[in-house]
Amino acid sequence: TKDPLVIFTPSGKRGRVPLGTPVLTAARQLGVDLDSVCGGRGICSRCQVTPAFGSFPKHGVTVSESALSEWNGVEQRYDDIRGLPSGRRLGCQARIQGDMVIDVPPESQVHRQVVRKRAEARDIVMNPAVRLFYVEVAQPDMHDPSGDLERLRDALATQWDLPDVHIDLPVLNDMQPILRKGGWQVTCAVHFGDAAAPARIMRIWPGFHEGPIFGLAVDLGSTTIAGHLCDLQTGAVVASSGIMNPQIRFGEDLMSRVSYSMMNAGGAAEMTAAVREGMNALFRQVAQEAGIETTDILDAVFVCNPVMHHLFLGIDPFELGQAPFALASSDAMNLMARDLDLTALPPAARVYLLPCIAGHVGADAAAVALSEAPDKSEDLVLVVDVGTNAEILLGNKDKVLACSSPTGPAFEGAQISSGQRAAPGAIERVEIDEVTKEPRFKVIGSDLWSSEDGFQDSIATTGITGICGSGIIELVAEMRLAGLVDGSGLIGSAAQTGSDRCIVEGRTNSYLVWDGSGHGGPRITVTNRDIREIQMAKAALYSGARLLMDKFDVDKVDRVVLAGAFGAHISPKHAMVLGMIPDAPLDKVTSAGNAAGTGARIALLNRDARAEIEATVRAIHKIETAIEPRFQEHFVNASAIPNSVEPFPILNS
Ligand code: FES
Fold this sequence. Notes:
- By secondary structure, the protein is of the alpha/beta class.
- The chain is 30% helix and 24% strand.
- The strands form 8 sheets. The protein has a 6-stranded mixed β-sheet, with helices on both faces. Strands 31-30-20-21-22-32 form a 6-stranded mixed β-sheet, with helices on both faces. The protein has a 5-stranded mixed β-sheet with strand order 2-1-7-3-6, with helices on one face.
- Strand 21 and strand 22 form a beta hairpin.
- The protein is elongated and about 100 Å long.
- The protein binds FE2/S2 (inorganic) cluster (FES).
- The site of FE2/S2 (inorganic) cluster has 13 residues, from loops.
């Protein structure tokens, strides 16, 4: 008689195994992803499977209940104490006695998928760098002169097929009492580094420790630092938290921080200490929010721009402040928490920094590339991360190009007369009636559209305080559509436009958006100078994108992805009316939200993604806009609204 046939779903993997083989063993033999932390001892329940009985014409088998062994004592005990969900069996205990169809539920798969909501975005497949392994270690003996570590390593090699596991010194320091406390049964957290680095024991618990264990995905921005605490076994985000970057006291923007380090001896070191302290505070905050100890955070992934990258690592960013903008290193970094004074984490906790792409295109852009995967796209996709520096990627599966373009702070509401950061009270959406030229607008903190005639009560509680970046983009675009501003960016007079909101005072033309003086608030206007600032910022963004299109030898793109918090709030139509992004079908312009943060999370949850983005970054062609003569030419053309030479046919159709 033949050995029984076993078919695993959903993988479809199948094969024959000897009668009486435990399901876990069969899964391993057939390369099926079935989890285990206890190594088949009936403790962890990670190996749960759902046997299926009945007729399966698709697989050509009929399965009776007797094809799987009855519950044994271990399973019975587990069910008595912790309860097995109905229909489930422990894969390490149940034995195969006939042809079988066995389903592996997602929670029993190490490499389960964490599904993302956006259809075009890649799903995250779990493959964390840190995993738990329970082992039973041989006791020391007068006749066997080996050390405790050597016996622990033997146990990992024989019980888990993990040969040659190293240990971090801080872990070795604590190891002996833990082995004895656990009665020679311990759980090890093992970190799998890159191909060149050996697996290392980074934490040991006495007895069986099922977790949870955690990792942090950190988006280290110049203004804010955001941390997402993830369960390293399920992939779930258990808490997210943010703090202001404490380096702000040394300068609002990156260049002022670079100059602080140039002007002050020890300035860079001061900023390094500040950001590391802030990081420790953030870790404590996010752990407290989740109700966990920071000592259970074993892995952390960081993404940041090049200046933040250098300051976090303790490298003086001096060279990044001047041409040719050489990075100290663009490589990804594998470090330990104690290397970076991250005292909130266990000393052997791992820190991974994504690689930088170039002197102006940082690990944050690499993370965007990981999240949005232009290198896997059939379509030609333009990915724009809009900040004070726009980081731009253009590519498809054949090639990816990257550049950065200095947009300045106008999109953050800075240098705009009524501008402000996106916060309650800021106008974020604007519509102007083409006939009456009267504006309606929406303010952050209120769901209602308001105008001076229909002043909404809800706004009275927040007050209208200014216009944020997305508001100013819509405002200028709506003014252009309503004929209040011409293609060169000049606001017409009341006589020219037919709107007495257009005011000419001396050499300043302006458009009155809202007169709050009657409500005790400010008068909100947009001036020619404000429009000039927006023209410069959007021209910088567009010409960066256009330059990459030249290099690709195309004059249109298939898709546009707007990344970043700001990108999430921009209206694609208005951005296109301004000529800020290239002409494309509006339904092909999407927002990716915080793609850099998502990229950090992907790298945290899947160690293969780290090798993948390192290879992608090496293959990305970097374009330096400052030395490209065509950049200036594109910039001049793109200063007009939408553009003095490019027709924007799709927008106008
Ligand atoms: Fe741990 Fe089955 S492998 S209970």
